[in-house]
Amino acid sequence: MALSLVVHSLTMSKPCIPTSPHPIPDEKTISAIFNLPVFSADGKRCRFGELVAARYGVGNVIVIFIRHFFCSCDQDYVRSLARCLTPTVLSTLPAGPSRLVIVGCGDPSRIIPYAAETSCDFPIFTDPTRRIYVRLEMNKSLASSTRPAYMEHSLLSLIIRSMGQMVKSGYGAFKGGDFWQNGGEWIFREGRCLWAHRMETTSDHVTAKELVNVLTGDENWRNGTKRYNILDPAPDSNESHTNKL
Questions:
Q1: Are 228 and 218 in contact (CB under 8 A)?
Q2: Cα-to-chain-centroid distance, residue 120
Q3: Could you tell me the domains of the chain?
Q4: Do the Cβ atoms of 60 and 96 come closer than 8 Å?
Q5: Smaller CB count within 10 Å for the chain: N or C?
């Protein structure tokens, strides 16, 4: 009895995920995409549901759907995630231990070059058929928006970088994925989809800081009214101050 009360107390102490900015698919759709395949860098397939399943005490899974593998703006975004959402940050969020997975829409052979380009240690998978993107109703558009906080380079520089990567990759330039396909950010807890943001332009990902705000239960996650300071390293911390948002 006492143990059950403790478990209940710990469960209730986790903050609720804020209201989703975009509609969450019904259970039938979620169940269907859980059975769709994604591929790792070595071409091995697994079900999408395996990526978001709770395991090893980690119940929250942030899934970042990116644009094509040659999108330099998205590469800047992934670099910002890698700098800010360190293992320490993800393991000490108020919502409970969390992990982050990246899913692209190109050929599996482009995963290793993408990870190297972005200095990304997060697990990266791909949905080359885009069936998951389609079932989750993520948008296709080349519309742009105002310069996001995570964008490190000018638009001209990004275009040049993308073209340079494509030229260097040879035939790999045709394997980056659909240039029109946008992505989004999705949060699953214990295998249930709780929060969804679909990109409406080519550069409106939810930032790392905003994702942390969401996982603190802040309804005003765009502005971060709860002022959660987990991203400020302690004075004796070994983590670099580049982790600060």
A1: yes
A2: 12
A3: 16-240 (3.40.30.10)
A4: yes
A5: N
